[in-house]
Amino acid sequence: MPTGPLMIIGGAEDKLHKRSILREFVAASGAADARIAVVPTASSIGAEVSGVYDALFRALGAADVVTVAPDSREEAHDPELVARLDRSTGVFMTGGNQLKLSAIVSGTPVGDAIVAAHERGAVVAGTSAGASIQSSYMVAFGGPGSTPKQRMTQVAAGLGLLDGTVIDQHFDQRNRYGRLLMIVSHSPQLLGLGVDEDTAAVVSDEGGSRVMRVLGKGSVTVLDPARMTTNAYEAKRSSPLLASGVVLHVLPEGSVFDLDARALVPQVSAVDPEDAAELAEAQRDLRRMARDIAASDVSPTTLRRRQARTRRQTTPEPTTDPLDGARQ
Amino acid sequence: MPTGPLMIIGGAEDKLHKRSILREFVAASGAADARIAVVPTASSIGAEVSGVYDALFRALGAADVVTVAPDSREEAHDPELVARLDRSTGVFMTGGNQLKLSAIVSGTPVGDAIVAAHERGAVVAGTSAGASIQSSYMVAFGGPGSTPKQRMTQVAAGLGLLDGTVIDQHFDQRNRYGRLLMIVSHSPQLLGLGVDEDTAAVVSDEGGSRVMRVLGKGSVTVLDPARMTTNAYEAKRSSPLLASGVVLHVLPEGSVFDLDARALVPQVSAVDPEDAAELAEAQRDLRRMARDIAASDVSPTTLRRRQARTRRQTTPEPTTDPLDGARQ
């Protein structure tokens, strides 16, 4: 059985307007059949945060929403909380402090039940702290800045739902290139993922490959350090790090990326219906012009004039010459 | 005759303490023989800015410092200003507004004299606005942010001292990955250079290759878009851009980068003298151990014990076993 989709959300997902990301989460969790477990442990105001997501997921049509809110490792052994996760079709981990989440949940029956939910095919989503904890190596905390510097951030163990990665969030808004570059300079076997606010990386198992699709307003930045050169093993104190040869992918909504091949999956670009009709007409005209030229060997000028006459008779508005391109 | 070195400074270079970058500029301009022309045109408080650099360059030992401060394209035709540039061994363009600098100077006799100074071997340096104008394509202005978005920045023509590039400054401090990525997504034939504050990219012609050395507290970030995939030609309004497969190099002080080969030039890492002595001793010990093993076929344990006895007799302090590594 394939593992369930992961939704890695960069924080501050839209809750009041289109709610695209949260709507997608409910849909993937089964829509009217969705049974959702909210884990607000990262937050220091977990009850209120759960209240918001409970209302949101019900408004978006989920059948049932429960809260799994252990506040200590002791509570994270409660069989009732584990049962709630085991019954869910979707798990949602809120934002807050990812170290609090890992300190309370990782390696407990509740943590194991989240991993098990993913393995049995349920959707596991998380925003901000709830995004970071999904990677195998978790950014614990650290400062902002574009340039990687020694000691600017700390790594702890994540839940490991997305193996071989480190995930950072609020990536654009909090200027986190530097800290993600520092981590991949220390650990070039990892793939670095930086997710912007109101943006989700949706990862699913497609024929044995982990395929990531981007959804939302910002981008997902991928740092592939496989062939990098670094001085991270000898840089002193807080000096800037050498990080040469990192391959960078910045992926907006609609992008599809193979995390195992570490390559963009080419997409046919979306064309709006009006443009599509115009392009199809231009294609027909050009094919006909090519045939006419090949058949009668008349001058292209004569042909263009003849075509213009034909077009004036058949279309109400003149269009631009397709040889000059439909898009200027 | 090779062109002179370019010093591309990311702004806010240290003026009060070690002054490493400005000191290097005076040294490269001829030290006690340096005749420096300061161009403060980018600044709206040019007289005061010139006053500071005049005092600085004299304090650092320059023989002569003059100001070239045209305030209009008309003034930029003044033969006396051109003569000052023609006599200089170093030209320094201050920070401010690079569009003001290009609006007044580019394509005038003063602008041409700056280019000519570079071509006859003088040092041309510039900080902030004075850095940006050195590239062929100049960032005019634009907003901050890590994620590239359509229309987030504007490009104008620079002096073209560093051909085929676009240079951004205050790179770390003002979070400018996004705008530099937007520009290279529009123009993937350019190499993007982002220079941090109090940091200089020093470019010199070495056997026909343009070699860049990094100096200062931050880093120089290089974006090589040669093999990128982008949707920049069809992205609407201010939507985030696809920029996949950009090769990234973050280069701290001491890094050497070949701008034509677009590759790091490997350096022997600097080892401090104390470490060097310890490493040399460890090397001797290991070579001797290898010889002993090969010669007498005794067990390594016996040999290690024997070596430890020898070391205790000859060195006052015990050192770590070199086989475990000198650096933990």
From TrEMBL, chains A, B:
It holds the Pfam family Peptidase_S51. One of its GO terms (molecular function) is peptidyl-dipeptidase activity. It comes from the Bacteria. InterPro entries: Class_I_gatase-like, Peptidase_S51, Peptidase_S51_cyanophycinase. Coiled coil: none annotated. Gene3D superfamilies: 3.40.50.880. Residues 303-312 have a biased composition (Basic residues). Residues 291-328 are annotated as: Disordered. It catalyses: [L-4-(L-arginin-2-N-yl)aspartate](n) + H2O = [L-4-(L-arginin-2-N-yl)aspartate](n-1) + L-4-(L-arginin-2-N-yl)aspartate. Keywords: Carboxypeptidase, Hydrolase, Protease, Serine protease. Its EC number is 3.4.15.6. Exopeptidase that catalyzes the hydrolytic cleavage of multi-L-arginyl-poly-L-aspartic acid (cyanophycin; a water-insoluble reserve polymer) into aspartate-arginine dipeptides. PANTHER family: CYANOPHYCINASE. NCBIfam families: cyanophycinase. Belongs to the peptidase S51 family. This is Cyanophycinase.
